[in-house]
Amino acid sequence: MIPVSNILRLRVAEVIEETADAHSIVFDLTPEQRAALAYRPGQFLTLRVPSEQCGSVARCYSLSSSPFTGDAPQVTVKRTDGGYASHWICDNVRPGSEIEVLAPSGVFSPASLDTDLLLVAAGSGITPVMSIVKSALAQGSGQVVLVYANRDERSVIFGHDLRALAEKHPDRLTLIHWLESVQGLPSTEQLRTLLRPFTGHEAFVCGPPPFMTAATTALKALDVPRSRIRREKFVSLGGNPFETATITPAKEDTGSAGGHEEQPATVRVELDGERHELAWPRRSKLLDLLLERGLDAPFSCREGQCSACACRITSGEVKMLHNEVLEAEDIDEGIVLACQSVPLTDEVSVSYE
Ligand SMILES: Cc1cc2nc3c(=O)[nH]c(=O)nc-3n(C[C@H](O)[C@H](O)[C@H](O)COP(=O)(O)OP(=O)(O)OC[C@H]3O[C@@H](n4cnc5c(N)ncnc54)[C@H](O)[C@@H]3O)c2cc1C
Ligand code: FES
């Protein structure tokens, strides 16, 4: 099963009704949990949501709080039409409830808070973006532009907080609201016009799939290189790391055939400030190997869907067996999913820093 240190049982301090269908869940952490829950703006937690049918389901929710403002960590959950977990959370979670979560993870986070940022969000896509806005304003020095689309005024999550931030940082935060009820659905062409003045910024896009496609197409048409466009896709995990995360034993290579294929590779891993060198059986996935060896490597879905296990290959090569979340540009930068990676070269170096 998952190493116990990977699951945190958090107490809910407060539930904030942000809009009629979006609730923020604020956590009350013990000092030990605070260290384990250290996160970067834009990262997410994986929550275990009870289910009478199957024990539980796992769902990712981005942290909408900032690690730099002294506020308690919180996630913000918006009801999905016909969805299970989002309704369960909004209907059942109360102050004093306890929720099991996996440690923060994800790669939707600015490399530097000092760069100029163009944040393009729609609906619940504001959640990780809110964390980035607050963090950049509190800790960084660049310009922050937020383009935020919603169905109507009542569905704007964090409207009040954003107004307060814009008043406090008039020289740094540009806030552009788009309301479908007034302006219609934003088209690629309209987004192109809106985003044109900010093409030198680092772009972050999060929202429903059609919105993300329109925003990304607009940015590409404005010649923003893909390496400067990060996207977070909100999908429901197919698997459940809480229920089924037995660790697949890393297959020992016998070497009996004497062939190159049977010799394990060697992997050097930098994780939590420590270095490890391990024999890596060629048919084992990197995450399976690390967990089996007792290392606290991050993960959530273990199916190539969430990016929680993303790490960087600093030398050597791996092959990803499945990938639904990293884009070609991420892979060009050396980012891979540990839960789907097997070695291609005899020596591989990996960094989680
Ligand atoms: C990295 C990441 C961060 C995220 N952050 C947030 C966040 O901050 N806030 C937020 O609100 N959400 C976030 N999400 C989305 C969240 O994880 C869930 O996907 C979302 O809450 C919907 O879950 P659900 O259980 O309510 O819906 P589900 O039950 O998963 O249903 C989702 C959709 O699938 C349909 N569906 C369900 N079951 C079936 C079926 N058997 N056959 C066909 N269709 C079906 C439903 O009708 C619904 O339209 C994030 C996702 C990821 C991956
Ligand atoms: S753990 Fe989700 S992609 Fe690897």
UniProtKB/TrEMBL annotation:
<feature type="domain" description="2Fe-2S ferredoxin-type">
    <location>
        <begin position="265"/>
        <end position="353"/>
    </location>
</feature>
<dbReference type="InterPro" id="IPR012675">
    <property type="entry name" value="Beta-grasp_dom_sf"/>
</dbReference>
<dbReference type="GO" id="GO:0046872">
    <property type="term" value="F:metal ion binding"/>
</dbReference>
<dbReference type="InterPro" id="IPR008333">
    <property type="entry name" value="Cbr1-like_FAD-bd_dom"/>
</dbReference>
<keyword id="KW-0408">Iron</keyword>
<dbReference type="InterPro" id="IPR050415">
    <property type="entry name" value="MRET"/>
</dbReference>
<dbReference type="InterPro" id="IPR006058">
    <property type="entry name" value="2Fe2S_fd_BS"/>
</dbReference>
<dbReference type="InterPro" id="IPR001041">
    <property type="entry name" value="2Fe-2S_ferredoxin-type"/>
</dbReference>
<feature type="region of interest" description="Disordered">
    <location>
        <begin position="245"/>
        <end position="264"/>
    </location>
</feature>
<dbReference type="Pfam" id="PF00175">
    <property type="entry name" value="NAD_binding_1"/>
</dbReference>
<dbReference type="Pfam" id="PF00111">
    <property type="entry name" value="Fer2"/>
</dbReference>
<keyword id="KW-0479">Metal-binding</keyword>
<keyword id="KW-0560">Oxidoreductase</keyword>
<keyword id="KW-0001">2Fe-2S</keyword>
<dbReference type="GO" id="GO:0050660">
    <property type="term" value="F:flavin adenine dinucleotide binding"/>
</dbReference>
<dbReference type="InterPro" id="IPR017927">
    <property type="entry name" value="FAD-bd_FR_type"/>
</dbReference>
<keyword id="KW-0411">Iron-sulfur</keyword>
<dbReference type="InterPro" id="IPR036010">
    <property type="entry name" value="2Fe-2S_ferredoxin-like_sf"/>
</dbReference>
<dbReference type="GO" id="GO:0051537">
    <property type="term" value="F:2 iron, 2 sulfur cluster binding"/>
</dbReference>
<keyword id="KW-0285">Flavoprotein</keyword>
<dbReference type="InterPro" id="IPR039261">
    <property type="entry name" value="FNR_nucleotide-bd"/>
</dbReference>
<keyword id="KW-0503">Monooxygenase</keyword>
<dbReference type="InterPro" id="IPR017938">
    <property type="entry name" value="Riboflavin_synthase-like_b-brl"/>
</dbReference>
<protein>
    <submittedName>
        <fullName>3-ketosteroid 9alpha-monooxygenase subunit B</fullName>
    </submittedName>
</protein>
<dbReference type="Pfam" id="PF00970">
    <property type="entry name" value="FAD_binding_6"/>
</dbReference>
<dbReference type="InterPro" id="IPR001433">
    <property type="entry name" value="OxRdtase_FAD/NAD-bd"/>
</dbReference>
<dbReference type="GO" id="GO:0004497">
    <property type="term" value="F:monooxygenase activity"/>
</dbReference>
<dbReference type="InterPro" id="IPR001709">
    <property type="entry name" value="Flavoprot_Pyr_Nucl_cyt_Rdtase"/>
</dbReference>
<keyword id="KW-0274">FAD</keyword>
<feature type="domain" description="FAD-binding FR-type">
    <location>
        <begin position="5"/>
        <end position="111"/>
    </location>
</feature>
<feature type="compositionally biased region" description="Basic and acidic residues">
    <location>
        <begin position="250"/>
        <end position="264"/>
    </location>
</feature>
